[in-house]
């Protein structure tokens, strides 16, 4: 995605306000990216309309490029749609905030990970929250299902409801709640049977358990790898059973996570948990920003913009680029560049952001600038007089000794800095000779 988008975004590098045409062009690519990430079509459409409403006409922030601003808006809208950002609903993790025994009902299709997630939840509640947990399997359809949960309960070192042959799901659920009250359990996790596809009998069974138990939390467990189908599943469960939380499993696979966005949109229920492996400790709280990054595939750009919008002054950057292109780059400019690089913490980061400099990046990185050298170089330059910074040619041996002493460095280091500056100036002169038709053309200088 990054590669495909950067072309479009390069064209957005202009001053003023974002026009509808600019935004639409960028959003066409975003739409494809969303669909590739398994976001359902109507959900993608809604999201894009939101971005358009927010982006068109927005004054371009001077400290970032319009292109980056669009990426950031897309990201923000994604995060919000996933329940984060401004108006963060904070509904993440396991909710046991109710009088004990708190019932958690696990629902979903067969193989979605209900039983495994039940075990994971039990382990976490016992170890992290010091809760006394009872696991009960209402799955009377598959012979081994109740035993599977019992095994997990042993592994998690939590209680499991004794298996009594011949009982139906309602009876087992009633017995689980009774046992929990009598034996003072804090939480009861009720694992239910799933079918391969949604069918009415399954739904009716789960719905009647829910009506009887009135669980505090009805968690829909969905396999992230099922992509678009996840949305239909979620819709059906929401309509017939009613759920107030979603656990998305198999995020350790290569699913892009778009299903989370669709499920959230269709059910209105928060994604609370992520299953990231078969082991019992592979349970994570849902983080909207992480999934948004994964869906958009541009997490790096977004964090770069976040840092840059605090540190980089775009006007400065353009002034600098202008000077560079005219070959009027002096040590003062070099120093101010060092300062920005230092603030960014990443040389390639800032260089990538300066218009037209992308191609120079590798060369400058080869110059071996690292953070400690940056600091020493800045110290050297600040020990120079203004005249020396403007005309480094006047720096002869005695001046260099003075500067080295003043900055706590050595004459060799001063020489190295001057050599680097010379190399850079030479490179810039070459670039400026190539002029408008050469290196600069694609970059927007
Ligand atoms: P249920 O039919 O909904 O109860 O599903 P199960 O809990 O029995 O899980 C079905 C299969 O998926 C098992 O082999 C689990 O080990 C596996 N599984 C469950 N959750 C995850 C997960 O988050 N990641 C991976 N890789 N496998 C999982
Ligand atoms: Mg099961």
TrEMBL record:
<dbReference type="InterPro" id="IPR003593">
    <property type="entry name" value="AAA+_ATPase"/>
</dbReference>
<dbReference type="InterPro" id="IPR004780">
    <property type="entry name" value="SRP"/>
</dbReference>
<feature type="binding site">
    <location>
        <begin position="108"/>
        <end position="115"/>
    </location>
    <ligand>
        <name>GTP</name>
    </ligand>
</feature>
<feature type="binding site">
    <location>
        <begin position="191"/>
        <end position="195"/>
    </location>
    <ligand>
        <name>GTP</name>
    </ligand>
</feature>
<comment type="similarity">
    <text>Belongs to the GTP-binding SRP family. SRP54 subfamily.</text>
</comment>
<dbReference type="InterPro" id="IPR004125">
    <property type="entry name" value="Signal_recog_particle_SRP54_M"/>
</dbReference>
<dbReference type="InterPro" id="IPR036891">
    <property type="entry name" value="Signal_recog_part_SRP54_M_sf"/>
</dbReference>
<keyword id="KW-0963">Cytoplasm</keyword>
<dbReference type="Pfam" id="PF02978">
    <property type="entry name" value="SRP_SPB"/>
</dbReference>
<feature type="domain" description="SRP54-type proteins GTP-binding">
    <location>
        <begin position="270"/>
        <end position="283"/>
    </location>
</feature>
<dbReference type="Pfam" id="PF02881">
    <property type="entry name" value="SRP54_N"/>
</dbReference>
<comment type="function">
    <text>Involved in targeting and insertion of nascent membrane proteins into the cytoplasmic membrane. Binds to the hydrophobic signal sequence of the ribosome-nascent chain (RNC) as it emerges from the ribosomes. The SRP-RNC complex is then targeted to the cytoplasmic membrane where it interacts with the SRP receptor FtsY. Interaction with FtsY leads to the transfer of the RNC complex to the Sec translocase for insertion into the membrane, the hydrolysis of GTP by both Ffh and FtsY, and the dissociation of the SRP-FtsY complex into the individual components.</text>
</comment>
<keyword id="KW-0378">Hydrolase</keyword>
<feature type="binding site">
    <location>
        <begin position="249"/>
        <end position="252"/>
    </location>
    <ligand>
        <name>GTP</name>
    </ligand>
</feature>
<dbReference type="InterPro" id="IPR000897">
    <property type="entry name" value="SRP54_GTPase_dom"/>
</dbReference>
<dbReference type="InterPro" id="IPR027417">
    <property type="entry name" value="P-loop_NTPase"/>
</dbReference>
<keyword id="KW-0694">RNA-binding</keyword>
<protein>
    <recommendedName>
        <fullName>Signal recognition particle protein</fullName>
        <ecNumber>3.6.5.4</ecNumber>
    </recommendedName>
</protein>
<comment type="subunit">
    <text>Part of the signal recognition particle protein translocation system, which is composed of SRP and FtsY. SRP is a ribonucleoprotein composed of Ffh and a 4.5S RNA molecule.</text>
</comment>
<dbReference type="Pfam" id="PF00448">
    <property type="entry name" value="SRP54"/>
</dbReference>
<keyword id="KW-0547">Nucleotide-binding</keyword>
<dbReference type="InterPro" id="IPR013822">
    <property type="entry name" value="Signal_recog_particl_SRP54_hlx"/>
</dbReference>
<keyword id="KW-0733">Signal recognition particle</keyword>
<keyword id="KW-0687">Ribonucleoprotein</keyword>
<dbReference type="InterPro" id="IPR042101">
    <property type="entry name" value="SRP54_N_sf"/>
</dbReference>
<keyword id="KW-0342">GTP-binding</keyword>
<dbReference type="InterPro" id="IPR022941">
    <property type="entry name" value="SRP54"/>
</dbReference>
